[in-house]
Amino acid sequence: MKVAVLPGDGVGREIVPEAVKVLKAVSNGRFELELEYGAIGMSGVEATGKPLPDETLAMAQRCDAILFGSVGGPEYEQWLRKNKVRSGLLQLRRTLGLNANLRPVRPIRELASVSTLKPEVIDGLDMLIVRELSSDIYFGEPRGPVESANGERESINTMRYRESEVRAIAHVAFKAAQQRNRRVCSVDKANVLETMQLWRDVMTEVGREYPDVELTHLYIDAAAMALLRTPTRFDVIVTGNMFGDILSDEAAMLAGSLGMMPSASLAPGGKGLYEPIHGSAPDIAGRDIANPLATILSAAMLLRYTLKRETEAVLVEEAVRRVVAAGTRTGDIMETGCTQVGTRAMGDAVVAALAG
Question: Which residues are annotated as catalytic?
């Protein structure tokens, strides 16, 4: 089983090695794991002049799964704008057909008081956000800076969806709901945007193919409010690329921190890219304080969805829970009476929990 390891930039270079330690520990004696390493983001630019080097793309294509850290930072964003190039991560998602992003929101009970919401509001929360990942305003054309007739600066981005793209992500959401509590909430802005009216129409059509799943609709503003007011009402949320980006970051605070939120980006053929939902966090990079648990939990999703190793995925998730329950914490989830540790020590603690 081959896994491409792409640490990327910023804290990605610190958190990914901890997830690799966990993968090696949980696979030892159970199955053979082959790891290949590549550059992406600013590290790709520095190595080859490209944010997605040809060698990295070829490696990602031949491997079964990709473990990804993060890309970003002021220097990288300036380089992308200057050279008018898309982010290496966006290129990778589009090229590999990674159209479905799964973001589970299942707070660890021992972290209930870390959330900004009252513990009773999130008690029992188990939600899955399904985000369409390969279209919408992030990829729509035309885009970019233009100059209007009167010389005033202007810029444009285009929200665009094809029926087939909406239909594909709808099936992912409904099938996921069939394995859960059989409820799908589709989030759009159909009262204002024609693109989102198409979204709602197609979701409704696909929903008829799943009579055992309840389908509801919410506008994005109402959904954002409901996530904070009554989050446990949701089972599966399915939404577009931009709205999903926003809602899943909001949902991270239900779990206490962005550092606790894993994700899986899946292609129809089964290949997956697994990453924490936070960015490169250049302000804390290189200081051994970043929380690696979202990346470790992303590795658990890699085991579950691509490698089909459910037993090992559960072992990793349970090891994380035991470490947190024992009071071992990074700064973002620190509480009175707990022991604060750094990135490497947290990874070591999870490995020790696996061994125990």
Answer: 138, 189, 221, 245, 249
Percent of the chain with pLDDT over 70: 100
For residue 130, the SS3 value is strand
**237 assigned ligand-binding residue:** no
136 is in an annotated binding site: no
Residue 114, judged by CB atoms within 10 A of its CB (0-12, 13-18, 19+), counts as buried
Confirm whether residue 13 is marked as ligand binding: no
pLDDT tens-digit readout, 298-352: 999 999 999 999 999 999 999 999 999 999 999 999 999 999 999 999 999 999 9
Give the ranges where 41-162 is alpha helix by DSSP (H): 42-48, 54-62, 74-83, 88-96, 119-122
CATH topology (fold) of 1-104+261-356: Isopropylmalate Dehydrogenase (3.40.718)
CATH 3.40.50.720 correct for 126-253? no
pTM, 2 dp: 0.90
* Continuous segment of H or E residues that includes residue 200: helix 194-207
Domain boundaries of the chain, sorted by first residue: 1-104+261-356, 126-253
Sequence-ordered list of residues with C-beta below 8 angstroms from that of 311, at least 6 positions apart, any chain: none
SS3 state of residue 27: helix
